[in-house]
Amino acid sequence: MEKAFNRQKVLLAHLQPTSPSPLLSASICAAGDSAAYHRTAAFGDDIVIVAAYRTAICKARRGGFKDTFPDDLLGFVLKAVVEKTNVNPSEVGDIVVGTVLAPGSERAIECRMAAFYAGFPDTVPLRTVNRQCSSGLQAVADVAASIKAGYYDIGIAAGLECMTVNSIRSVPQVNPRVETFQQARDCLLPMGLTSENVAQRYGVTRQDQDQAAVDSHRKAAAARASGKFKDEIIPVTTKIVDPETGKQKVITISEDDGIRPNTNLAELSRLKPAFKKDGSTTAGNASQVSDGAGAVLLMKRSLAAQKGLPILGVFRSFAAVGVDPAVMGVGPAAAIPAAVQSAGLELNDIDLFEINEAFASQYVYCIKKLELDPEKVNVNGGAIALGHPLGATGARCVGTLLNEMKRRGKDSRFGVISMCIGSGMGAAAVFERGDCVDALCNVRKVESNDLLSKDAR
Predict the structure, then answer these.
(1) Does the CA dihedral 64-69-421-31 come out positive or negative?
(2) Which residues form the Thiolase N-terminal domain (predicted)?
């Protein structure tokens, strides 16, 4: 027996390389070509999304949530995340909520109350973040960064907006100094006028915008009819008050109520411009004001595996950039390339895009500017049909994107979420499909290879 062991040792020695060589790392295949050089081989350190849920999105002031308190809206999704994953609420290191319109201190208190409604102990902290329309996505990025830094192991990124209660208003008291700074003055432009600026400056026609709106409603209606949103929407039982009789009725809301399946170009063409007499932005080709909330549960891959939780997606990169405030809608055209490059990828590596349809003008421009395949963008509709509850949109997009990528399987590995931001910014994040068994199982087939990394050419 001893001779056999010695023979094995000799054979193994012959199989060893004569000079030290680096071990093949799974992480080399886990993202883009250049990413192999700045990402570690610690596959288990990936920051992953294990759950992403949202309420339905309802029309502000006349939709299903018009009589629902903001803290209740957030409480519903926080509770759903815990119940559906069986994560111990006391293990959550922080809850970060993106929210925009309400006074900061007031909304922060409401969000803290929502956490208690959802069953979180008083030991779990909470804070809010406001980067305008990207607040929900910023919350996801903040939680991912905190987990990566080791501040805590599990975090929840959420988003909330109740535009029934808090409407978009102008700055109440403006510093006279603003008159001497053109770009500072442009920060105060109504968002609708920035949409008109984009359309005029970049030649986006009224017909282009109306067609984008028709497509948004058509795709959203098809997605709702086929049950695609059921994976991300949690049914909410709440009350609604009849405005004429004052009577309350208990209802359960499980579908977005802003989708209009019969929207057509003829109807949209009859709508008058909403922000400028000779403009092209109308109520029909702009996002809807809405009420809604969403929540995303993040942790390290190793911890998710330990807990037996399915991995919905992997957070790969995030970028926020500044642009000219007068055309703030162009933000995604600047942010998407930055986020994609940060992930070590190229635009043609991205299989799906969720670009927020704040206005059809900016949405159409960004697709054309980046030369994106329209068949890859907002495949289940966007904010023109679904609505845009400002602080919640980013969290909503995470669930929509990752569930669609899961349905498509190997044909959809990387996805991007992006939006423009009031006062002149854009934000974007890259996600990888998360249902792979290991780092290599969904590697793309290389059609041609000269055996050199593109970074070495």
Answers:
(1) negative
(2) 47-302
